[in-house]
Design goal:
With 468 residues, the chain is of the alpha+beta class. Helices cover 46% and strands 18% of the residues.
């Protein structure tokens, strides 16, 4: 599931109360750990969840606290599934099979091969499917419910854009009064966050770390950090961009402060930061002297920037490509080998890239020699854009894999352009939403738990133990 095991919700008082009188009969219902509205959580479900976490190598607390934490997690999942069902959120068998097929394809397996791999892990395929169905339902319900609670005003967007414009002035007036060495300061830190559950296996952890390190490398280049975060989130909606705003060092997470302690304004932290929640790529947007309010110059600039928004300079690239689409009968190895052959011909000047694109590209741009026209940040899928941005004019890439297939890319030209006000507002709204999402999510979880009818019966005993 997407939420962490330690959900931050205070354990309900029901869990510490003794049950007396007529409730004593309920307590002895075999296998039931808690009644949740009109449903229940069994002791076996707790056992199974603990076993799964142990198999994944998760470090777990000792004693009865573990069972209470796992039960609380299961209660929250049960509440969300019940509410989602009432709201009509469902996943059909046909849709579920397609999702599993996509998962198998990403692992370069057929559906049947993936099914065999799941079964070999010790879980029945039907149980896997039901777990996945519940995960998808809960995620959809959570996203729909939390998103509806996030309100973003035009004034917030205006202020966000004004801050970014001041940060990009360059030789103009400084964004804020710089801190005197040794004096109290505030630091504006932004992050691109690649989440990975603490219960995830070594493979998932390694993949998340690899993604973070690629983003860190790209962030060190001449690229807007917000645009980089937006492009990464477009590829994977779980990746988040967040500007934490000005904070005193003691209001920053300790891990973050240690990473940026010696990082100057406009600089990226030297390495990826690992936390229990995942991997973080950090950038110091600004450092300023601590004060009760922003400098007068900054306060005066905000209304002016808000009432007179300006386009932001960006770099646009004209490129062309040859695309070999994902399809049955064309393996990744075959597609990559074919594109390498085209690349070698272009480099040896025995063939023209445009002619090869017209003949072999499986894209609508083939008639134009693969030319995609002028593209700005965020206009292309991240894998393509990142590879393209590393190329010099005239250079041809190695084969690049994206969700659409395999690409061979050549950069034709670059130019300075303007990021329109409308596009700025799109980026600003997305960044502000990410900033607000975590608090909205925690508030929503507390509300769910507080309004549910939950009775804890027997959390301490394993399913194989006789109720006490």
């Amino acid at each position: 599931m997407a939420a962490p095991l330690l959900v931050g919700v205070v354990y309900a008082q029901d869990s510490s109360r003794g049950i007396t009188g007529g409730d004593s009969k309920i307590r002895n219902i075999d296998g039931v750990a808690a009644v949740v509205n009109t449903g229940y959580v069994t002791r076996k479900e707790i056992d199974d969840r603990i076993t799964a976490l142990q198999k994944q190598g998760v470090k777990l607390p000792d004693g009865p606290d573990l069972r209470k934490l796992v039960l609380e997690r299961l209660i929250l999942e049960k509440i969300q599934l019940q509410n989602a069902s009432q709201d009509g959120i469902a996943v059909t068998n046909k849709e579920l099979d397609k999702i599993i097929g996509d998962i198998a394809a990403k692992n370069r397996l057929t559906y049947l091969e993936f099914k065999a791999k799941v079964t070999a892990s010790g879980m029945s395929f039907e149980r896997y499917k039901e777990n996945l169905r519940e995960d998808i339902i809960v995620t959809r319900y959570r996203e729909r419910s939390v998103e509806s609670k996030i309100k973003i005003s035009d004034a917030e967007i205006d202020n966000f854009i004004a801050d970014r414009q001041r940060a990009m002035v360059g030789a103009g007036a400084p964004r804020s009064a710089p801190p005197v060495k040794g004096a109290p300061e505030e630091i504006d830190v932004a992050q691109i966050f690649i989440p990975v559950d603490a219960s995830a296996g070594a493979g998932a952890q390694a993949e998340a770390k690899k993604q973070a390190e690629i983003l860190l490398r790209d962030a060190r280049g001449d690229v807007d950090f917000l645009q980089l975060g937006a492009a990464a989130a477009k590829e994977n909606p779980k990746i988040k961009f967040q500007d934490l705003g000005y904070r005193a060092p003691d209001r920053l997470p300790q891990l973050f402060y240690e990473a940026v302690r010696n990082t100057g304004s406009g600089q990226v932290a030297s390495s990826v930061v690992k936390s229990p929640a995942g991997y973080h790529v950090l950038k110091v947007i600004d450092r300023r002297a601590m004060s009760a309010s922003a400098p007068a110059q900054q306060q005066a600039a905000a209304p002016e920037a808000s009432s007179n928004p300006q386009n932001i300079p960006i770099t646009q690239t004209m490129a062309r490509h040859i695309l070999l689409k994902n399809r049955a009968g064309l393996s990744d190895q075959d597609a990559e080998r074919r594109l390498q052959g085209y690349r070698d011909q272009v480099r040896a000047k025995t063939a023209d890239f445009g002619d090869l694109a017209k003949k072999y590209s499986e894209d609508g741009s083939a008639a134009n020699g693969g030319n995609l026209g002028w593209m700005g940040p965020g206009d292309l899928v991240p894998e393509f854009e990142q590879a393209m941005n590393r190329l010099q004019i005239g250079e041809v890439s190695n084969p690049v894999k994206s969700e659409f297939g395999w690409h061979l890319i050549q950069v034709l030209e670059r130019r300075d352009a303007q990021l329109t006000v409308e596009k700025q507002r799109e980026f600003a709204r997305a960044a502000i939403r990410e900033r607000k999402f975590e608090q909205a999510y925690q508030d929503w979880v507390r509300e769910l738990r507080d309004t549910a009818t939950v009775k804890i019966l027997n959390v301490d005993d394993a399913a194989s133990s006789a109720p006490r």
